[in-house]
Design brief:
By secondary structure, this protein is α+β, with helices and mostly antiparallel strands. It is built from ten helices and seven strands. Helix 4 crosses helix 7 and helix 7 packs across helix 8.
């Protein structure tokens, strides 16, 4: 996919995107740390697909929170200016940010706007760094200093995320409520606090993420097999959800993933 094709590019396919494990002391709170470098040149139209998580990132000289999304976000990634970020574990961000995730759904507020007492100092330290590596080191070091004061994510919400991520008939919402011993209303409220939306929306997002993983692995031949393996009723169901959540058709997504695999093989 080249600039000018008009269709957005899956964000992880644009430029150089790399994930790594967080520092050990941050592992209870973070899924990963990541960097994203867009090459110099015209800005690329990118699509960041919802994944049920919240990120903290340094981009464009600011420390911002990428709140939970229900549709693809289309941020402007500055060419040549590396983005450094961390991704919170499911349910962890509300402890760090001190508010329900439903208050920042679909938003990217500056961390200082959320009233965190440590936000300005952390942003100032990162802003003094001269390289991508130094920025990441300062981001992790700053969070590590704060981590002892932050409680770990609620295990019930981590279980909900894993449960719905399985995509089996046995892992439905009714079974999840029985496992947690809470009512439908309580589950909805707690999911809004931890993830920014209700369990049905989270289920849809995690199902689409299963499709993306299966498609990237290339183990399921054909769209029908991919749709079934991911938990969709049929390819038409997958197509509707792909357009709603991503703004791309499954065929376009498969084309981008295939192009990425070819580029990695040729590198």
């Amino acid at each position: 996919m080249r600039p000018g094709d008009g269709m957005p590019i899956l964000a992880k396919r644009a430029g150089l995107y790399r994930e790594a494990r967080p520092a050990p002391q941050l592992a209870p709170h973070l899924l990963c740390r990541w960097v994203h470098v867009i090459p110099q040149g015209p800005a690329l139209p990118v699509a960041v697909v919802p994944d049920g998580c919240v990120d903290l990132l340094w981009v464009g000289g600011r420390l911002v929170v990428a709140g939970p999304d229900v549709t693809a976000a289309h941020p402007v990634l500055p060419p040549g200016d590396p983005v450094v970020a961390v991704r919170f574990r499911p349910g962890a961000a509300m402890r760090w940010l001190g508010l329900p995730m439903s208050e920042i759904t679909g938003r990217q507020p500056d961390l200082q706007e959320l009233g965190r007492p440590w936000a300005r100092d952390l942003a100032d330290r990162i802003g003094e760094a001269r390289t991508m590596v130094e920025r990441m080191a300062r981001l992790e070091a700053g969070l590590a200093r704060i981590a002892p004061e932050i409680g770990p994510p609620a295990p019930e919400m981590a279980l909900a995320f894993r449960w719905l991520g399985r995509g089996t008939e046995e892992a439905g919402l009714a079974a999840l409520r029985d496992r947690l011993g809470i009512s439908e209303r309580s589950l909805r409220r707690r999911c809004h606090e931890a993830f920014g939306y209700g369990p049905k929306t989270l289920d849809r997002i995690l199902r689409f993420q299963r499709f993306l993983r299966l498609a990237a692995a290339g183990e399921e031949p054909g769209l029908s097999a991919l749709a079934a393996a991911a938990g969709y009723a049929d390819p038409a169901h997958l197509t509707r959800e792909a357009r709603r959540l991503c703004g791309l058709t499954p065929v376009a997504i498969l084309g981008q993933l295939a192009a990425g695999a070819e580029e990695r093989a040729a590198a």
